């Protein structure tokens, strides 16, 4: 065994340890940055030592002559891909982060499938054809199937989140049957790749090649048909699921090329993404299967500011001065951010209001629902950007305990996750765990209109006698509250 190969394996082992420890640190917002940096360091080391291995002929590399061109290709990919990734990450708005994650999922799945296709094509075109081993053909078939579904499905999800594709469930006559048929064809073609690939005749090689193309096309079609019927309310779960698919595709690509660090990294992403998908589905009291069936959520339907709607007659409206008095006199205030806050980019105004109240002696915390926003952890990251202390962010159970004791609950742009209709049967969100905002002594909701959330039903919280509606854009409404509270505190 060459010294370079030994060093490579040791670095791969160290990188795998970095991935595991980094993932552990990402469990908490307080340590997530360190976890991300540790995982990135492990991957950087793995990439560098892989490039070194390319130059070692004794270790199976291409040697210095071929390594120059391989290095140019690798370096070019790092510069172009890494450069665009850095540009996109720094330029993207927090409201567009879910779209960016979906695009990254698409890139990861597509890249993994491309690796499998490239290696399979090289093997199928070999001059001395003697068949494919099962240990090679099985991961190739799985990689192409999972990677293609991830690629096309993630692109559709990104389109829905960006508004290029309707956020409402999209179906057409025969769409379910076509989706099922495409899935069956994709799996069947994958089986043919494995079976025919084991043959040694030219006919077996031709059959395996054609089956690989059929599997790719059918899987791409299934990815599109799988995501189209899923509504906007389920997008956080879809993003988690596709992220898990990306990890599985990368792990399969690792088996194809015999790269241990890809297998470990992909397996970790796949496992953590699967667990997160289950947790997100549980947070909505729905099974992953029912989400994939689709049909829930109406997407973003813009509505004019102001009361409107049939329930407007029973709604109690308030102005900024009314709310400022409630907040200034309160002992405990719970802030409930939702996607409306993210859409208005009002996290800094909310943090400013919280700091103002805290300096006035009011105990302030933030109630974060698991599916608030458009992706897992979206609201936590948004608030962290505004330097909100992590200890003030309360998850569902802890937040509900505080809502039972608070004087004022201020809801900013949240809808379905605060709807008491979830507690009774017969509604689109029945059984979904919600934030018990209506348990607070007083409730104030900042919202542009009485428009529905993704579930497409009226929010019974808005007509509760203890609820006051401040109709305004989240950013403008919070700015009004900050000014009113400052004036009231100064005058007091």
Automatic annotation (TrEMBL):
<feature type="transmembrane region" description="Helical">
    <location>
        <begin position="138"/>
        <end position="158"/>
    </location>
</feature>
<dbReference type="InterPro" id="IPR029035">
    <property type="entry name" value="DHS-like_NAD/FAD-binding_dom"/>
</dbReference>
<feature type="domain" description="NADP transhydrogenase beta-like">
    <location>
        <begin position="10"/>
        <end position="483"/>
    </location>
</feature>
<dbReference type="GO" id="GO:0005886">
    <property type="term" value="C:plasma membrane"/>
</dbReference>
<protein>
    <recommendedName>
        <fullName>NAD(P) transhydrogenase subunit beta</fullName>
        <ecNumber>7.1.1.1</ecNumber>
    </recommendedName>
</protein>
<dbReference type="GO" id="GO:0008750">
    <property type="term" value="F:proton-translocating NAD(P)+ transhydrogenase activity"/>
</dbReference>
<dbReference type="InterPro" id="IPR034300">
    <property type="entry name" value="PNTB-like"/>
</dbReference>
<keyword id="KW-0521">NADP</keyword>
<dbReference type="GO" id="GO:0050661">
    <property type="term" value="F:NADP binding"/>
</dbReference>
<keyword id="KW-0812">Transmembrane</keyword>
<keyword id="KW-1003">Cell membrane</keyword>
<comment type="function">
    <text>The transhydrogenation between NADH and NADP is coupled to respiration and ATP hydrolysis and functions as a proton pump across the membrane.</text>
</comment>
<dbReference type="Pfam" id="PF02233">
    <property type="entry name" value="PNTB"/>
</dbReference>
<feature type="transmembrane region" description="Helical">
    <location>
        <begin position="67"/>
        <end position="88"/>
    </location>
</feature>
<keyword id="KW-1278">Translocase</keyword>
<keyword id="KW-0560">Oxidoreductase</keyword>
<feature type="transmembrane region" description="Helical">
    <location>
        <begin position="100"/>
        <end position="118"/>
    </location>
</feature>
<feature type="transmembrane region" description="Helical">
    <location>
        <begin position="237"/>
        <end position="257"/>
    </location>
</feature>
<feature type="transmembrane region" description="Helical">
    <location>
        <begin position="6"/>
        <end position="25"/>
    </location>
</feature>
<keyword id="KW-1133">Transmembrane helix</keyword>
<feature type="transmembrane region" description="Helical">
    <location>
        <begin position="210"/>
        <end position="230"/>
    </location>
</feature>
<comment type="similarity">
    <text>Belongs to the PNT beta subunit family.</text>
</comment>
<dbReference type="GO" id="GO:0016491">
    <property type="term" value="F:oxidoreductase activity"/>
</dbReference>
<feature type="transmembrane region" description="Helical">
    <location>
        <begin position="178"/>
        <end position="198"/>
    </location>
</feature>
<keyword id="KW-0520">NAD</keyword>
<keyword id="KW-0997">Cell inner membrane</keyword>
<keyword id="KW-0472">Membrane</keyword>
<dbReference type="InterPro" id="IPR012136">
    <property type="entry name" value="NADH_DH_b"/>
</dbReference>
<feature type="transmembrane region" description="Helical">
    <location>
        <begin position="37"/>
        <end position="55"/>
    </location>
</feature>
């Amino acid at each position: 065994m060459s010294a370079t190969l030994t060093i490579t394996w040791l670095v791969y082992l160290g990188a795998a340890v970095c991935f595991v420890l980094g993932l552990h640190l990402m469990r908490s917002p307080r340590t997530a940055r360190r976890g991300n940096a540790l995982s990135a360091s492990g991957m950087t080391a793995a990439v560098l030592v892989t490039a070194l291995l390319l130059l070692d002929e004794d270790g199976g590399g291409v040697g210095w002559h071929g390594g120059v061109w391989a290095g140019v290709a690798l370096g070019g990919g790092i510069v172009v891909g890494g450069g665009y990734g850095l540009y996109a990450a720094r330029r993207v708005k927090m409201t567009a982060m879910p779209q960016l994650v979906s695009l990254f999922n698409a890139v990861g799945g597509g890249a993994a499938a491309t690796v499998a296709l490239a290696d399979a094509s090289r093997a199928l075109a070999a001059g001395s054809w003697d068949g494919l081993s099962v240990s090679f053909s099985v991961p190739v078939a799985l990689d192409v199937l999972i990677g293609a579904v991830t690629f096309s499905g993630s692109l559709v999800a990104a389109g829905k989140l960006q508004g290029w594709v309707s956020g409402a469930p999209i179906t057409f006559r025969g769409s379910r049957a076509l989706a099922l048929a495409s899935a069956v064809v994709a799996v069947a073609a994958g089986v043919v790749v494995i079976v025919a690939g084991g043959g040694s005749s030219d006919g077996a090689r031709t059959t395996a090649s054609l089956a690989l193309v059929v599997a790719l096309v059918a899987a791409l079609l299934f990815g599109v048909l799988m995501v189209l019927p899923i509504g906007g309310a389920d997008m956080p779960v879809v993003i988690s699921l596709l992220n898990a698919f990306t990890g599985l595709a990368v792990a399969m690509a690792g088996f194809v090329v015999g790269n241990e660090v890809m297998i470990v990294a992909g397996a970790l992403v796949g496992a953590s993404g699967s667990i997160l998908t289950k947790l997100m589905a549980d947070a909505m009291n729905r099974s992953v299967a029912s989400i994939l069936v689709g049909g829930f959520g109406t997407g973003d339907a813009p509505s004019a500011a102001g009361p409107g709607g049939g329930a407007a007659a029973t709604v109690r409206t308030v102005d900024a001065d009314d709310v400022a008095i409630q907040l200034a006199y309160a002992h405990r205030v719970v802030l409930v951010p939702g996607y409306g806050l993210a859409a208005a980019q009002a996290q800094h105004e909310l943090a400013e209001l919280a700091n103002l109240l805290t300096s006035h002696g009011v105990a302030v915390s933030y109630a974060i629902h698991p599916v608030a926003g458009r992706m897992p952890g979206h609201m936590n990251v948004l608030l962290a950007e505004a330097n909100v202390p992590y200890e003030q962010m309360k998850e569902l159970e802890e937040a509900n305990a505080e809502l039972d004791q608070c004087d004022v609950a201020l809801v900013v742009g949240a809808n379905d996750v605060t709807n008491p209709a979830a507690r009774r049967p017969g509604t689109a969100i029945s059984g979904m765990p919600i934030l018990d905002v209506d348990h607070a002594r007083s409730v104030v909701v900042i919202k542009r209109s009485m428009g529905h959330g993704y579930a497409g039903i009226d929010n019974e919280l808005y007509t509760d006698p203890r609820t006051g509606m401040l109709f305004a854009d989240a950013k403008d409404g919070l700015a009004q509250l900050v000014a009113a509270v400052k004036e009231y505190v100064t005058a007091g």
